[in-house]
Amino acid sequence: MKNIAIRKSKLAALNSKHPWIFSGAILTDTSAYEDGELVRCVDPFENFLAIGHFQPGSIAVRVLSFEDIPINQDFWNKRINNAVEMRRKQGLISEDNQICRLVHGEGDNLPGLIIDYYNGVAILQAHAVGMFLSAEYIVEALKAALGDELKAVYSKCKETLPNRVDVENEYLFGEVAVPHIAKENGIPFSINWISGQKTGFFIDQRNNRKLLANYCKDKKVLNTFCYSGGFSLYALKAGASQVDSLDSSQKAIELVEENVSLNKLEDKHNTIVADAVKYVHNLETDYDVIVLDPPAFAKHRDKRHKAIKAYTRLNANAIRQIKPGGIIFTFSCSQVVDKFLFNKAVIAAAIQCGRNVRILEQLHQPSDHPVNAFHPEGEYLKGLVIQVD
After folding, report:
1. What distance in Å separates the CA atoms of residue 99 and residue 373, rounded to the nearest whole number?
2. Cα 218 from Cα 104, distance rounded (Å)
3. Residues 52-102: pLDDT tens digits?
4. Exposed e or buried b for every residue in 26-46, given b needs 16+ CB within 10 A?
5. How many CB atoms lie within 10 A of CB 351?
6. Distance between CA atoms of 113 and 103, rounded to whole angstroms?
7. pTM of the model
8. Cα distance between residue 141 and residue 76, in whole Å
């Protein structure tokens, strides 16, 4: 294992257990280092600091351990078993809950690794080459942690590592036909990890979908950016009088219809193919509840200002149009827009519209998307439930 020396002036972040080491902190010439190889990080006097995966780029090392230990099968078994057992204790691997995130990168001390679980099938996404190269260890660790519950492991890394010609989306263990049925809070969903977005489903809204049900009985609901219709199904199950699912993608609308049909809830459900921002600006229907769950408007800091303006515009449209007393569930999954900036955007939207708004709930990602206390960047999902007078 090669050493990488860290500048003395940059040791503070490592000493506070931050799992990323940036290229500007490195003294060593790393031009001959391989993307994804394991490296030992040392101080200028060669005292041990950490072990991690090297990668060329701004984030030069993703730290696996701050202890000088072997990164072998035993290491992977312990880390992944720890993550799985935490989900078990929360009841997220059970008869009624068969959908969860098993590993959430830095939040589970495995930076660059995402594993989502759908009723016996684990979907692996590596956001760093080091994790992709560790796939065999990860599969064996999943087998050890899940036992007979594990039916298959599918690697979906082509989208996350587009520059690697050797990466293919493929089964690494077993094989299960798609679409595959899995339950969330007792509600069955049809999941397709092969052709669906991300790993096939947006798991991070589970708690917020359940909360939405409290506001939907006998209400008319609009679910924008609906994708596969998670919020729509919870609203219908809760007794909404009408639910309209809106997305600009015909493929997403087909997924919604498939899930609504699976649950035999077609009678009170409509679908709309349209641009959500334009549609909400010119609503022809009075809605009691509107869900605004857009994709990330900014993935980099240089886009943050435009993103805040976009969130303000979208929320202003909904606030202006909703019925008096109406409820809006509004979200941002842009990591570079923190919850304070997002709240300010929603408040600015309310001021623009001249309507009184009350914040009823402040929302965030669930516990199977944990945030490493030393890596606050891991907190990405934020939301509000607001009532408009």
Report:
1. 25
2. 37
3. 999 999 999 999 999 999 999 999 999 999 999 999 999 999 999 999 999
4. beeebeebebbebbbbbbeee
5. 13
6. 7
7. 0.95
8. 6
